[in-house]
Specification:
By secondary structure, the protein is α+β, with helices and mostly antiparallel strands. It has 9 helices and 12 strands. The chain folds into 2 domains: about 140 residues, Jelly Rolls; about 80 residues, Orthogonal Bundle (Arc Repressor Mutant, subunit A), CATH 1.10.10.10. It is about 45% helix and about 20% strand. A 4-stranded antiparallel beta sheet has the order 1-8-3-6. It has a 4-stranded antiparallel beta sheet with strand order 2-7-4-5. Strand 4 and strand 5 form a beta hairpin.
Length: about 240
């Protein structure tokens, strides 16, 4: 996904072009989406929708993070999926007509594009290229969601944080001389909310990893210095 450095209200076409799935569309279809969509802003902790809701839009994040959660029998919110800049969310529910099986919560302040569901479905129905890309994306998404759900449901705190870092690395990382650099500035608060733990626990884990040379942090950017050791934490 292409990352947008957004501090002010972005333009709809810029947000659409940041999504590689929608880049399969023709210029005419992209124009139709841009013309029909509108930008919305939410603050960290706001609900975009609740489980079971029937919303009339598909979302596309411009510059922030959304988590999809379910509530466990004990009342704890468990993160099932994460969506960041350039990610579209709610599309599968719109296509299948199943609505929203999970609650969508903003992990950070963000702008996102609200694409009318009817317009999106009309374009989807006539685009073979979009359908082909969506099938490929859906397979990868299912694999990632199942893995994340397993880690987030039963893993230790350090395993859950490791799982978050690896999930983020799949879409938002580059390799440099130090290691795997996550190109997504995140606070300890945001990491803790994604991992379903406290800020204090996240600080303790990240500080220990930094001392042990597993990760480094600089201006909210995280670098995985030792992928092997972090993967060992995730697996043990």
């Amino acid at each position: 996904m292409a990352l947008l450095e957004v501090h002010e209200k972005p333009r709809p076409m810029e947000v659409l072009q940041s999504n590689t799935l929608l880049n399969a569309l023709t210029a005419s279809d992209m124009g139709a989406l841009a013309g029909a969509s509108r930008l919305a802003h939410v603050e960290r902790g706001e609900m975009l929708w609740f489980k079971g809701a029937d919303v009339d839009f598909v979302g596309l994040s411009s510059d922030g993070w959304i988590k999809m959660v379910r509530t466990s029998p004990s009342g704890t919110d468990v993160t099932i999926e994460l969506f960041g800049p350039g990610h579209i969310f709610g599309l599968m529910g719109a296509i299948t007509g199943t609505g929203c099986p999970l609650t969508a919560v903003a992990v950070s302040d963000l702008w996102y594009l609200r694409i009318p569901k009817e317009v999106m479905l009309d374009i989807y129905g006539s685009s073979i290229a979009l359908k082909d890309r969506l099938i490929r994306k859906a397979a990868l998404r299912l694999h990632g969601a199942v893995d994340l759900m397993a880690r987030m449901s039963s893993g230790r705190v350090d395993q859950r944080i490791a799982a978050i870092l690896f999930i983020l690395a799949e879409s938002y990382a580059v390799k440099d001389l130090l290691g795997i650099r996550l190109q997504c500035p995140l606070t300890r608060q945001e990491i803790s909310e994604m991992a379903g733990t406290t800020v204090e626990s996240t600080i303790r884990v990240m500080s220990r990893w930094q001392k042990d040379g597993i990760v480094s942090t600089d201006r909210q950017q995280i670098v995985i210095l030792d992928e092997t050791r972090l993967n060992r934490i995730l697996s043990n």
